[in-house]
Structure formats: C-alpha cells, structure tokens
Amino acid sequence: MKLKTIATCAALGLALSVMPMQAQNKVNDSTKFFSLSRLTVGGYGEAVYTRNFYSDNMFRYSHAERYKDAKGHGRIDLPHVVISLGYDFGKGWSMGSEIEFEHGGNEVAVEIEAEETGEFEHEIERGGEVALEQFWIQKSFGKGFNIRAGHIIVPVGQTNNAHLPTDFFTCYRPEGEFTILPCTWHETGISFWGKVGKWRYEAMVIPSLNSDMFNNANWVKNGSASGYEFRVANKLAGAARIDNYSIKNFHWGVSGFIGNTFNNDVVTNEFSETSQYKDVKGTVIIGTAEFDYKGHGLVVRGNFDYGHLSDANLISAWNKSQNHQSFSPYPRSLVGEAAIACGGEIAYDIMHPMKLKGNQKLYLFGRYDYYDSYIPTANALTDYQWTDRHVMTLGVNYYPIKQVVIKAQYAKRFLKEQYNDEPSFSLGVAYSGFFTK
Q: What is the pTM of this model?
C-alpha cells in the first residue's frame, strides 16, 4: 500500500514537472484570483434615542383637541446597520454588495394607521428579515463609461445619492425626502454611468413603482416595496442623474424618474372597454435639484423635489375599493396628485479656526424642511391638511474621528393651526467607513 502511494505521488510530481508552462500559469492565476488586496469590507450604522413631546395616538389628527397636552413618548431605534462587501476581479470587472439590517433587522412591522380608521396594520416593506440593499456586477471601460447590473441604488434626490449617516447632520435622514420618496431607494436593474471632466452622469432602467402601495402620508414612498419573494416588473421605468463639480468645494446635481405605476402588481387586471380604469396609467414623474458647499469649516446644503402622479383620483378610487384581506400589504388609501419636499441646512465647525491636528470636528447646525405628501387634485373630495408640514431643527455633530459621529438635536414640526405642533429631542451615534484599504 505504501509503495502504491509513493508511486502515485511520484507520477503526480512527474506530471507537474512536465506540465506546459501555459497550464502552470493558469494554476498560478487561479491562486491569485482571490486576493485580499482586492477585497473591500465596510459599512455604516446608526443608533438613535428620541423623546417626542407629543401624542402618538392614532387619532391625534382627526381629534387634535384631545391631545393638546399629551406628555409624549420615547423611542430607541437602530435605523440602519449595513455591512458592505466589494471585490475587484480585474480587467474592469468588479462587484459590490450591501446587506442592511433596518430597525433591528425585521422588515415586517406593525404600525398604527393615523386618521383613516385608527386600526393596527402590518407594514411589509420588503419580504424577509434582512434587506439586500445592493448586489451588482460592473464592467468598467474607463472613467467615461461603466455598466452596472443587479440590485442598485436609485440616486433620485439628495438623500438617496448621499445616504450615509456622515452625509447629513440630523439624527434621522432629512425628513422631507425621506417621507415622500423611497429611501434608500434600491431596485434590480441596469445602470450606465461615467465621469467626463467635471461631470458625472448616470442613467438606469428599473422596475416601476406599484400604485397599489401609494398613500396620503408618504405619497409614492412605499411603491418600491414588495411583500413577495420577488419584485413585480410588469412596468419598467427610467431614472437619471447628472452632477457637476466645476467649482471648488461646490457641487450641484439634478435627477429624475418616470414610469407608469398602475396595474404593476402580482395580480394584473384586464379592464373592459367600458371600465373607467381601462386607460389609467398612473404615470409618476419626479424631478429633483440639489447643491452642497464644503469649505473653510462651513457646510451648506439644499434640495428641492417635486413629483406628479397622473390619474390620481382614479387610482385613489381603485385603492379604496379593494377588498384585500386584513394581512395584505396594501394601505387602501387616497393618494395625492403631487408631492413636494424642499430643505436646507447650514453648519459650521467651531474647531476649524483652532487648526488642531487630527480629524476632530464639532459642527453646530440648523436645518429647515418643508414638505407635503398629499397635494390633491382640484376636484378631490378629501384634503388631508396635516400632511403639509414645516420642520425646524437645531443641533450639534461631534466627530472624534472621521468615521464616527455623535449627534444631538432639537426639532419642531409645525402643522396647520388646527393641529398640534410636534417637538422632539434626539441623541444618536453613527459610523461609516471601510475596514480594509
């Protein structure tokens, strides 16, 4: 037995010794294919405590006078914890991925529906307990042209384009965009992008939104959700973005989305020629503009978003008429013809004049947001005026190192005079960065 083993090993050694050089190189190449130097590991995470000095009762808008002197309530949250992995395969091929644990990792939640019926309902953001926020394969032909396919970020709006917790000063993502748009918006599709001089462009084809998921409180935000093991794609949509960096320390960008959203669900409906829904498209058009300046210890940002939904009254009637089971993900809510969000913030690093060594920063900031998630048509029967809101925020961000930030803020949400204003205090800690070089 020993002689047989020795003979086998000798034969193997002889075979390797006479192996053509080309074949040996292939073996060597395969061992070099997986290299730690080509692997990137990173992520980001947030933990927030908030004390809301107003009632969270389900009837706080329909019977506001009852809750004028409410004591409020406290919340502890893990908004986002993300692990990212990337790899450079060489020859222009690379991959990227992000696994997100949102609000502790369970994406099937129970919410109390305000205003409509005050009922408890299940909110299914995406089926499963963890979300795959990104998974894509990319082929780069140079800085000017790249193709990315898979599950990708849709960079429509300032927050979706820069959604790391170190990219904004508030403890939670800026309230206006976060309310009316999917955030972080991620879809499975194909993207074409590149950088030409001081310009960056991106265009993509993705599944369109689902109008059955639209509502009065969040406009089309939940339209990217799917309670199934797949994403319905009966209708496709387009998204695009352009950014410019010509001026030192200054950046501006515009982005947009267009797609038909009606009948983009797992159960399609064939409408007869006499049906009022036979020509309904539910076209969503979104346009955004933004800017930011960073220099000399000063940071200034601003954004404006506007969106329009065609056939809003018919879509509202359709959504309200559906006799879905109580466990379905559909809100059965009216939806506005349009929505708007605009905001701006200014911050100054009071440690900047000291010119200390290291990356310590201490920003004092102020932010203003205005948004309305339900702008009805002229002949709409219902106008939810509590969706029209102004928010003022004052706070501080301390960066002991570049990748870690400690946040504190006081915010007040101003509603129409028939409702109660909503002040709050939040304290948070966050990080973002790569663990490998």
A: 0.86
